[in-house]
Structures are given as C-alpha cells and as structure tokens.
Write a structure and sequence with these properties.
The complex is a heterodimer of chains A (about 80) and B (about 700). Chain A has about 80 residues and is α+β, with helices and mostly antiparallel strands. Chain A is globular. Chain A starts with 11 loop residues before the first strand and ends with a strand. Chain B has three domains: about 160 residues, Rossmann fold; about 60 residues, no CATH class; about 300 residues, no CATH class. Chain B is built from 31 helices and twelve strands. Chain B has a seven-stranded mixed sheet, with helices on both faces. In chain B, strands 7-9 form a two-stranded antiparallel ribbon. A two-stranded antiparallel sheet of chain B has the order 10-11. In chain B, strand 3 and strand 4 form a beta hairpin. The chains are: A alpha+beta (about 80), B alpha/beta (about 700). At the A-B interface, helix 1, strand 2, strand 3 and strand 4 of A face helix 3, helix 10, helix 16 and strand 12 of B.
C-alpha cells in the first residue's frame, strides 16, 4: 500500500486510512482527514522529516509517522 | 456583570493569539503560573467600556480540547471547572482566517461547552493573498456568536473586539444547538454522568468521560467511577474522539463553504515561503545558514553584550566605592557593600546577555525560522536520542538552563523530552561565563591567533564546545537506559514566514529579563548575605581570638602584613572557614583548598555566586589597595602555603574550569527538573551523573597537568 512516505516531491494523493490510532487523532485535529488531498512539499536534507501541504498549510512529520498514513491516487 | 470579568484567549498556535494578547495588555502583562501547575500563565488588565476592568488570560495555543502536549492540559482543566480562579466569563477564540477550517475546530468545541464565545478573525490580509474572501457577517449568523475582524499584528479592530466582549458579558448569546452532541450515540452514559457530577452540558459530560484522568479537581474515587462507566457502556475513547473530530470537520466544511469565497486550490504555498524554504531547507545552504545564525547568536551574547556588561561592572564598582567612602565604617556598611551590593551587581551584570539571547531566540521564533531549524536538525539529533525540537532548549541553555528546560515541553515524545531535560544543563549557561573568563584570564595568555582570535577567546570557545559535545554524548549514553513508555510525535505545523514585529519581540525580551531579575535575583542576594554572615562570624569567640593567635604565632609581623594575617586567620576561624576545612580532604585531589571549597559550596545555589564568593573571601582576607583592587589581581596574588608559589597554577585553573563545565551547580535547575519530571528520581540521577563527570574529569585534568 502506498503511504505519504512514498510520495515524491510535488506528488498529490488523497488520504485513505490511518494505521496508528494516537497519531491519527493528532492528524485529524490538524485537518488531515480521510479524503483530504495532500501534496508532498519537502523532504528535509537528511531524508527525514518531510512536509506535506494539506488543508491550506504545511505540516511536518517524521518519515516513520508518514509511513502510517495510507494514501491513494484518486478517491 | 462580574466586577473583574475574566476573558480567556484561546486559539491555534500561530493564529496570532499572543500578538492579540500583547496588543490588549502591553507592558501591563504579568507572567506567572497557573495554580498548582508549572505552565506559564500570562495575564493582564484590560479596560472595557465604562469603568469595568477585565483580566485577560492567554491560554496555551492548541488545536483541540484534547491535549497532545503537557502545556495544553491546563486549558481543559480550566474550562471544565467553573470553580477555577481562571474560569472565563467570555472566551475569545482567535482564528487564522487564512486557515479557517482548522481554526474553527477548537471554536466549535469551546462553543459546545456552552461558554460565551467571541470569534476574532485574524490574518485576513494573509487570507486575501491566498484569494480567500471571508464573509464575517455570514459567519456570525451561521455561528450565532459575535465575529470581529482584527489585525493583531498592527492592532486593528481592537475597539470592536472590546465592544463585542462587553456585549457578550452583558447579554450572552443563548445556547442554540451542539455542533456535536455525544448524547446522540450514548444518551444513557451522558445522562448518568450529568446526574452524578451535576452537569448541565452534554459535551462537558463527554470530557469528564474522556479526560477525567487529567482533571486536577476530581478525586481519585470519582475518576475510578468514570472508568467503571466507560466499561459499563463499552465506550471506546479513541474511536469516539476520532468520530467527533470528523463530525466537526464535516459541519465546519458546510459552514466555510457558505461564508468563504475562494478561487485557489489548497495545496499551494505562499511564494515567499516557498522561496525561503528552498534555501533554508537546502542540504547545504540550510545548514550553512543555521551555522551562521548560531555564530551570530554567540557573537551577540559574548561580544556585543560585553560592552554594556563592562559598563555595569564599572558602575557597580564605583557605586560600591562611593558607598564605602560616604557611609561610616562598620558592620552595616560592610554588609551593604561586600554583601548586598556585590550580590545585586552579580545579578544585574547578566542582564545584557540574557536580553540579547532572548531577543535573538524571539526573532527566530517570530519569523517562523525556528520550525525549519527543528526540521533540518531532527534526524541528526535523533541519533543521540534527542529530537529536532531539542534545539531550542539546547540553544537557550547557553543563557540559562531554567527557561531552557521548561521549553522542552513542546517535545511530544516523553523519552526525547526527558533526555533533553537531562543534558540541557551541560550547555554552558551565562552564569558560568564569569567563572570561565576570570580563570582563563589568570592562566591563559592573550596571544593572538590567526589575526583576530586570541588564545583566551579560543579557550573559551573550546569550553562551550566541550559542553555541547558532552551534552550530545551524554544523551547518547543515557538513551539506552531510558524506556520509551509513550508514543509521541514530531508532527507540527510549519508556519509561513513573517516579518517579526519589534513590539512583540521587545515584550518577550522584557518578560524574560524581568523574570530573571526577580527569580534568580532573590536567590543570589540571599546567598550573598548569608555568605557574608558566615564569613564574618565564627563559633564561640574564635573570631576575637584570631588576633591574639596571629600575634603569638608571628611576633615579627607588623603593619599591613599583620592586618592581612589577622584577617586571613579570622576567615579561617569563621563558620565559612570551618565549612571549607571540613570538605577540603574531598576536593584536595582536584587541587582545591578550603577557600575554593567555600566558593564551591556557595555556588551550589547558583554558579554565578562563585566569583562573588571568591571576591568576598579574598576581600575579607585582605585590604583593598591599588594593586589588588580587582578580584583577578587578588587571586593572582594568592600564595599556596604548601609550595610557596602562586595558588592559581594552570593545573588548578583548568581543573576548576573543567569542574564547572560539568557540574550541576544550580539549585534552580534542580528545582525545575523536579517540577518538570514530577519527582526526585531524574533530578537526583542528573545531579549524580554530572557530579561524577565533573569530579572525575577535574581530577584527571589536575593530575595530568600538575
């Protein structure tokens, strides 16, 4: 399954499902919901963390965190 | 209306909430703590219409009423408890209009608690740049609360906001309906909680169920009661919370569609932020800029700050001389000059450094750059068991470990936060600087190196690097022994870049200087006075006997030499002298004598006391004249009675320097670690490992060099 950690810079996708309950609560509150469109915005110099554009702003997270958010190309 | 109504500011981080708070209260703001927790509380008076004065309380920024970091817990603890002294009469929710959906989540939660709410729409200019047209009137009708357009950065719309607050205080808008009603799914559970806890509000009842563990006002029995209810109704906490958030966003989606016009798509970064990120997150330039920024901070803290510090130093010294000349000689004058003024001087002299450091850290935070530093440093720091967010405590630790350790609260992961707290005191704080400079000046020559550096400057830098290196290495060693019991996240919003407002930066500097002077000042002044007393009086009549004793032992001495010998004997016979003698065997392997022992003990209250103590001890031990007026000169003149040579050899000075790089010589830091880790375990472990490092390495240094 594709996750946010698999996206390339500039690539867009839709959030499908969270695999980690506590992290999902945090992401939901930040407006990153199932069905939200996200775009990979940057990858930090050493390959981790990364930043996504979602819901009108930029959200940074670690790669291992991003790998728990499943995405799909279209809803 | 209440006599002094309380107005709470609530909103997302980066929504401009603190700017609004600064605009409303300015220099009248006070920094304190919320009752019984160590979360910093900023509050201040606000004149409303007529003669009503309200109190504005700035609550920690958060994204939802379900706290994800320690600081955030205080918000729901206040809002759920009408008896709390900060329970608000009106809540002003500050919302970033350019990010309305996410900002409205907390609004709907606060409104559902049944609290009177005013919505302050901030950053409309940013929204317009993003092609978002927010219709405040429509929004107010939809939300059924007053909606005020403000610009917190420049202070526009404050009058309208005050009017809306007064209007809401006088006639709160009636509660209409829940954005999310938990009773729809769990009617019996909510009913039972409302009945047993005498609540009127369904959503508040839900928070009792979900968050009773962090409610400070509930008894243990009550908490257990809620756990039983959760079991009885098979209530799934996380699942229900997720469902609540999604439900709220669905409602908000509808509201925003009707009141915000947009042509843009949501995935585009503002142009300038994109451009700056291209540089500041660049694999090479990102680190290059960060290195430059660090260099600037050090340069400012050490070089720029030294000018005002020298002026303060000279000013205090001449003031002290003037006092000594003007006042009649006697005990009181001695206490005032050698004890009190010397002690106060030791506090005041740090103000420029603290101010510069906090100025720069505030600038980095206001501009949005700090978030980028956290991102580029995260992976590096993680190798040592730390977190990208540890960068802020570590940098701030160069000024003072106390605020630095408190700033570690933003680190979500418990283990990474704990490690940060444990190693931050190894960063050489400004209190160590006077010890470093005086000892370096004693034994290291000012030989120029490469044109503009000197050997002294390089030694000083070396000590700071040693501190940083040992902080990282200690974290790396300790990380294997600390269990990771909790999941925490790095997830954080990357704010857009903003030009810092000098007014806000200035207020931040003012606050930090003020709290340093009042907090640290109290301790230092107290220690100075106690020390003076201990060094002036002794058990029984031993002080009086000192003169006879000296005259008997050295019948040949005369004049100044005799006075000096008597003064030295008096010090040796004093309480402080006995103290120093008592610990001398333990510190002798490091090269220290009982006089240094006194200073070591005294400096445990705060390191900056060391130099003051040395100055007190050596000034009590001798008359001040042209040659030995300064503490440096007095230390240089000190003779080791065993060798007959100068006391301060390079071996001794470096042994002391190394000792102070590692020693946890600061009671305020220990107290802060105790508060932050909720117990004595970690502060004691920290004290133990740092003392072992300090003693062991100082011992090695002395033995190798002598």
């Amino acid at each position: 399954m594709k996750t946010i950690a698999d996206l390339k810079i500039g690539e867009k996708a839709f959030v499908k499902e969270f695999q980690q309950v506590d992290l999902s609560l945090k992401l939901l509150e930040m407006g990153c919901l199932p069905g939200s469109e996200v775009m990979l915005d940057f990858i930090a110099p050493l390959g981790d963390p990364l930043g996504i554009q979602v819901n009108g702003y930029c959200l940074a997270m670690r790669k291992e965190e991003a790998a728990t958010v499943l995405v799909e190309e279209s809803i | 209306m209440k006599k002094t109504p309380i107005i709470a500011l609530i909103g997302n981080p980066n929504s401009g909430k603190s700017s609004l708070f600064n605009q409303l209260t300015g220099l009248r703001q006070k920094v304190g703590n919320f009752p019984s927790v160590t979360v910093e509380k900023k509050s201040g008076p606000l004149m409303l219409e007529g003669q009503t004065e309200a109190t504005v309380v700035d609550l920690p920024g958060l994204y939802s009423l379900y706290p994800k970091a320690l600081d955030e817990q205080v918000v729901i603890d206040i809002l759920a408890n009408p008896h709390h002294e900060d329970y608000p009469d009106v809540v002003v929710v500050v919302a970033d209009a350019s990010n309305l959906k996410r900002n409205l989540l907390i609004f709907t939660q606060v409104a559902d608690l049944g609290l009177p709410v005013v919505l302050a729409l901030n950053m409309l200019d940013v929204a317009e740049d993003k092609n978002l047209q927010v219709n405040a009137v429509k929004l107010a009708m939809k939300l059924n609360v007053p909606v005020v357009r403000i610009n917190a950065r420049v202070g526009e719309g404050l009058d309208n906001l005050k009017k809306a607050i007064v209007q809401t205080l006088e006639k709160p808008t009636s509660f209409q309906k829940y954005y999310f009603d938990p009773a729809e799914q769990f009617p019996e559970l909510i009913k039972e909680v409302k009945k047993s806890s005498q609540l009127a509000n369904n959503y508040l009842a839900l928070h009792y169920v979900q968050q009773h563990d962090i409610f400070s006002f509930l008894s243990t029995e009550k908490r257990v009661g809620f756990d039983k209810l959760i079991e009885k109704y098979d209530f799934k906490e996380s699942g229900f919370q997720a469902a609540e958030t999604m439900h709220r966003y669905a409602v908000i989606d509808g509201l925003v569609k009707e009141s915000v016009k947009t042509t843009d798509n949501f995935l585009v970064k503002p142009l300038w932020t994109q451009r700056l990120d291209n540089i500041l997150l660049h694999p090479f330039w990102g680190y290059a800029v960060f290195f430059l920024v660090l260099l600037t901070i050090f340069q400012a803290v050490f070089t720029l700050a030294s000018y005002p510090m020298d002026m303060i130093d000279a000013g205090i010294a001449s003031f002290n001389d003037w006092l000594k000349e003007t006042l009649p000689p006697g005990l009181f004058t001695d206490l005032l000059t050698d004890g009190l003024v010397a002690g106060i001087g030791g506090v005041v002299i740090f103000i420029p450094q603290i101010a510069f450091l906090f100025l720069l850290v505030a600038l980095l935070e206001e501009s949005g750059y700090m978030a980028r530093v956290m991102v580029i440093m995260d992976k590096l720091m993680r190798r040592f068991g730390l977190n990208g967010k540890s960068v802020v405590p570590l940098i701030s630790g160069v000024a003072c470990a106390v605020p630095a350790i408190m700033s570690a609260r933003s680190i979500g992961n418990r283990k990474e936060r704990l490690l940060t707290i444990l190693v931050t005191p190894l960063m050489s704080c400004s209190a160590r600087l006077p010890i470093f400079t005086i000892l370096i000046a004693l034994v290291v020559p000012a030989t120029p190196v490469l044109g503009f550096f000197t050997l002294q400057g390089l030694t000083l830098m070396g000590l700071y690097l040693l501190g940083l290196l040992s902080a990282l290495l200690s974290a790396w060693v300790i990380k294997g022994w600390v269990a990771n019991t909790e999941k925490g996240y790095f997830v954080m919003e990357m704010p857009t870049y903003k030009v810092p407002r000098w007014y806000h930066v200035g207020l931040a500097v003012w606050d930090s200087v003020k709290s340093f002077v009042t907090e640290a000042g109290k301790i230092i002044v107290a220690i100075s006075i106690i020390l003076w007393v201990l060094a002036t009086y002794g058990p029984g009549d031993s002080i009086e006997k000192a003169e006879e004793q000296v005259k008997q032992e050295n019948p040949m001495l005369q004049g100044t030499e005799l006075d000096n010998a008597i003064a030295a004997q008096k010090l040796e016979n004093s309480y402080a002298g006995h103290f120093g003698k008592f610990i001398e065997p333990a510190i002798a392997p490091l090269g220290y004598d009982w006089k240094i022992g006194i200073a070591l003990l005294a400096s445990f209250a705060a390191r900056e006391v060391f130099v003051g103590t040395m100055s007190t001890i050596y000034s009590i031990g001798s008359e001040a004249d042209e040659d030995n007026g300064t503490i440096k000169a007095r230390m240089r003149a000190e003779i080791n009675p065993k060798t007959g040579k100068p006391m301060y050899t390079p071996a001794l000075a470096f042994s002391l320097l190394i000792f102070y790089v590692f020693a946890m010589m600061c009671m305020s830091t220990i107290a802060t670690v105790y508060r932050e880790t909720h117990g004595w375990k970690w502060p004691l472990i920290q004290l133990a490992y740092m003392t072992v490092l300090a003693y062991g390495l100082a011992f090695l240094t002395y033995q190798l060099l002598s």
